[in-house]
Specification:
By secondary structure, the protein is mainly alpha-helical. The protein has helices spanning 9-23, 30-37, 42-47, 51-70, 78-92, 94-101, 108-122, 135-154, 163-184, 188-199.
Length: 201
């Protein structure tokens, strides 16, 4: 008699995450997870109280993964890295991005937590210290633009999805947003001085 394979919670979570990545949250079911593991649905139901419990774990896993993307050093600019990371995540995990940010407001708490973590990252950027009271507004403006690009990526409507393009596009709009805010606050020259110093100019 062949030895029975025992699946751990982590095995089930990984299988569920693969389904989530391929089909979005609507596709996550005990049957499809079992198909990934090549087993019955029993391990899924014995490891978790419900599919909803498993879905909550997938959401938290997705948020942590997204944060890793936005914390990578694509450039020397912490603020720019947030946007580039979001687009890279959308490119790699289209269905997950759509579930989190496009299809409904069900996961509003994910966006709120993501925003809170990003504000912490932005405070590390020296050129933004003079605009600390405006950081949330600046982030919201860039987020709107970035989500627009991410939506095009998810719909396969963006021709150039290279990291170089992401950096250029977000760098340009970010400069406009921050520069405009600095000008409105009467701090444009101070901001430009900080920016040049960081760039070694």
């Amino acid at each position: 008699m062949p030895k029975q394979i025992v699946f751990t919670k982590d095995d089930i979570i990984e299988a569920a995450f693969k389904v989530f990545k391929e089909e979005g949250m609507a596709g996550v079911s005990a049957r499809k997870i079992a198909a990934k593991l090549k087993c019955s649905t029993a391990p899924v139901y014995t490891s978790f109280n419900s599919i909803d419990e498993l879905k909550d774990i997938l959401l938290e896993k997705s948020l942590q993964l997204l944060l890793k993307y936005t914390e990578k050093e694509y450039t020397q600019d912490y603020f720019l890295n947030i946007g580039v990371g979001m687009l890279e995540f959308a490119k790699e995990y289209r269905f997950i991005y759509r579930t989190l940010f496009i299809e409904s407001n069900t996961y509003q708490n994910i966006l709120e937590e993501f925003t809170r973590k990003n504000l912490i990252q932005m405070k590390k950027e020296a050129s933004l210290k003079i605009l600390e009271e405006d950081l949330k507004e600046i982030l919201e403006k860039l987020t709107v633009y970035t989500h627009g690009l991410a939506s095009f990526i998810c719909a396969d409507m963006l021709e150039d999805t290279s990291q170089d393009y992401f950096i250029k596009a977000l760098g340009n709009i970010g400069g406009d947003i921050i520069g405009g805010t600095a000008l409105r606050r009467g701090k444009l020259q101070e901001y430009l001085k900080c920016h040049r110093k960081r760039e070694g100019l």
